[in-house]
Design goal:
Homeodomain-like_sf, HTH-type_Tx_Regulator, HTH_TetR, DNA-binding
Length: 199
């Protein structure tokens, strides 16, 4: 039952927003009593914490699946972006991360600490892969480029109110990041990926 509550709560939080969804809403959607929810979660903050942690885990499982498909480095980044777009396509107009930062800053900070660690790992691996494939320049300062990119992405998500707007700016950031690193071969691959995009 605990997992079911987390799953339904995560779905509602992403769709309608962390602030607007109440414990009553979740109970009503699941046809259970509010008392049942409080049996597992002493308050809404604890439920939000567990839900965001579950979504975080799911996101990284999907990223791992994409990485395992062994696309080239640039294609891989575009596939990951597509996955985020699909995950949040039913989201409220307000970006979930923006809401979390605004209304539950402590939970937001906790998520970000883990997120930055994991993203460091993905971004670094992607850059090394791109260099080995001849898509990125071999002389890159990898640590710096990893930092540039996650600073850009997290800033966009934490400060852009509209989820749709955040996704459009993220695409620009991905293009910017890729162009900054790409060889001529990489630019050709980037152009190929950009042609396939539907915002």
């Amino acid at each position: 039952m605990k997992e079911k509550i987390i799953s339904k709560a995560s779905e509602l939080f992403l769709k309608l927003g962390f602030k607007s969804v109440t414990m009553d809403d979740i109970a009503g959607e699941m046809c259970i009593s509010k008392k049942t929810i409080y049996k597992y979660f002493c308050n809404k903050e604890v439920l939000i914490e567990e839900s965001t942690s579950t979504v975080h885990q799911q996101v990284h499982e999907v990223i791992d699946t994409i990485v395992a498909k062994n696309y080239n480095a640039i294609h891989e980044n575009f596939e990951i972006r597509e996955m985020f777009r699909d995950m949040f396509k039913n989201a409220t107009d307000t970006s979930p991360l923006y809401q979390l930062k605004k209304h539950y800053p402590e939970i937001y900070q906790n998520i970000m600490t883990h997120e930055i660690d994991q993203c460091n790992h993905y971004f670094r691996d992607n850059i090394l892969k791109g260099i080995s494939e001849g898509l990125y320049r071999p002389d890159l300062n990898i640590d710096l480029y990893v930092k540039f990119y996650y600073t850009l992405i997290f800033h966009i998500n934490a400060t852009t109110v509209s989820e749709r707007e955040a996704q459009k700016i993220e695409l620009e950031a991905l293009e910017y990041h890729t162009r900054a690193m790409a060889t001529e071969k990489g630019i050709l691959e980037l152009e190929k990926q950009l042609k396939k995009i539907t915002i």
